[in-house]
Amino acid sequence: MKADYSTAHKHCRNQGGYLAFFLDQKEFDDYKLNNNQEYIGYWSCDHPNFMTADGNEAEFTNWGWGEPNNDNGNEVCISLLPNGKMSSVPCDREYEFSCRLPQLCLSQDNCEEYFCRYGNICYHNDDVSTSEKPKCPTSYSGQNCECGPIFVPQTDEFGKFIEADYATANKICRRQGGFLAFLLNQKEHDDYTSSVWFPKSDTSDAFAYGTEYLGYHSCGLPTFYTDDGNEATWINEIWAQGEPNNRDGIEYCVAMTYWKEFNDYYCDKSLPFACRFSKNCQ
Ligand SMILES: [Ca+2]
Ligand SMILES: [Ca+2]
C-alpha cells in the first residue's frame, strides 16, 4: 500500500501504533528493509532536527550522503531507501510504509528486547495482527480510566515561569514523563484554564495571541497533531476567530490566546508552558 505521510500516519494510528521509527541501532538492524522507498515515522518542525512520530526527539537516524538537505524548504518527512539510508522528502508524495505496533506488556520483562513504554505497551516493528489499542486516552488511568490528567506550569527554582521555544518546552515535559499540555475536550480545557494561569502585564495584540505554548504541532502538514502523535480533533472547537491562519506559512505550533482560545503560532518564540501528567490515583 502506498500513501502520503498523513494518510500513512493515520493508518498506523488507527491500529494503535505509529509509522515505523527506530530508537537505536539494534531496532534498525532488526527492521526488514522494503524493496522500495518508504515513509518512516519522523518529521521536523525545525530543520535539521527531527522527532519520531510519537513526538520524541529522534535519537537514532541513518542519513544518506548530504541529507537532510531540505530541498525546496519543504522536506518535513523522512523516507527510507532500500539501501537503508534515510533522506528528507516532502510529505505529499506516495510511498509504501510499515507500522510500529504495540503489544501489551506488564513490565519490561514481557517485552524481551523491546521497550515497555506509554501505558504498558511493547513497541516493535513487526507486522503484528494481534495488536491492541491502549486502554485509556493518554494521561488517563484508573480501573475505568476515570483518573484524568493534571497540568503543571513549569517554573525554575525561584518560582519564576520558565519560557522556552516549542521544541525545548516539549523536551522539558518529555524528560519528566509527561507531554507539553494539550487538551482533548472542554472539560480538560476548563481544568487547564482554572489550574494554570500565566499572569500578563502586556495585552498588546502581538502578545495576546501567544500567551503560552500548547502541545500541538503541524510541521506544515494539513492537520494538527497532539504531542502524543494523535490527530487533534477537539482543537477545531477552540480556534480563535480567523485561526488557524498559518501566517508567513510557518505557524506550525499552537499557543493559547489571552481569551483562552487557540492560535496557530510560530515555534521559535519564548513562551511559558505547562506539562500534562498522569495522576497517581492509588
Ligand atoms: Ca532530501
Ligand atoms: Ca495564527
Automatic annotation (TrEMBL):
<dbReference type="InterPro" id="IPR016186">
    <property type="entry name" value="C-type_lectin-like/link_sf"/>
</dbReference>
<dbReference type="InterPro" id="IPR016187">
    <property type="entry name" value="CTDL_fold"/>
</dbReference>
<protein>
    <submittedName>
        <fullName>Oidioi.mRNA.OKI2018_I69.chr2.g4573.t1.cds</fullName>
    </submittedName>
</protein>
<keyword id="KW-0245">EGF-like domain</keyword>
<feature type="disulfide bond">
    <location>
        <begin position="136"/>
        <end position="145"/>
    </location>
</feature>
<feature type="domain" description="C-type lectin">
    <location>
        <begin position="1"/>
        <end position="100"/>
    </location>
</feature>
<dbReference type="InterPro" id="IPR050111">
    <property type="entry name" value="C-type_lectin/snaclec_domain"/>
</dbReference>
<dbReference type="InterPro" id="IPR000742">
    <property type="entry name" value="EGF"/>
</dbReference>
<keyword id="KW-1015">Disulfide bond</keyword>
<feature type="domain" description="C-type lectin">
    <location>
        <begin position="166"/>
        <end position="276"/>
    </location>
</feature>
<dbReference type="Pfam" id="PF00059">
    <property type="entry name" value="Lectin_C"/>
</dbReference>
<dbReference type="InterPro" id="IPR001304">
    <property type="entry name" value="C-type_lectin-like"/>
</dbReference>
<feature type="domain" description="EGF-like">
    <location>
        <begin position="107"/>
        <end position="146"/>
    </location>
</feature>
